[in-house]
Specification:
By secondary structure, the chain is α/β, with parallel strands linked by helices. It has 3 helices and 3 strands. Strand 1, helix 1 and strand 2 form a beta-alpha-beta unit.
Length: 71
C-alpha cells in the first residue's frame, strides 16, 4: 500500500478496490469522506482510527461491522 503517507487527504474513493488494504488507509486520519463500497480488502481495523469521517459508504462491503465504525 503506497497511500499511507498521504495523510492530508480528506476524501477518498476506493469503490471496488482490491489492492489497498486496512494498513493502507489506517494512517489517513484527516479523511472526512470515504467510499469503501464493493471493497473486500479493508476490514474493521482499517477504519477504527478514522475519527474525522462524516461520510462512509459501505454498500456491498461485508468486511466491516458495527465494531469497526463505532468510534
Amino acid at each position: 500500500d503506497k497511500i499511507f503517507h498521504l495523510t492530508g487527504l480528506t476524501s477518498l474513493n476506493l469503490r471496488g478496490n482490491d489492492k489497498i488494504t486496512s494498513n493502507g488507509i489506517s494512517t489517513l486520519t484527516n479523511l472526512t469522506s470515504l467510499d469503501l463500497s464493493w471493497n473486500q480488502t479493508i476490514a474493521n481495523e482499517g477504519i477504527s482510527e478514522l475519527s474525522n469521517l462524516k461520510l462512509l459508504n459501505l454498500n456491498g462491503n461485508n468486511k466491516i461491522t458495527d465494531r469497526g465504525y463505532l468510534i
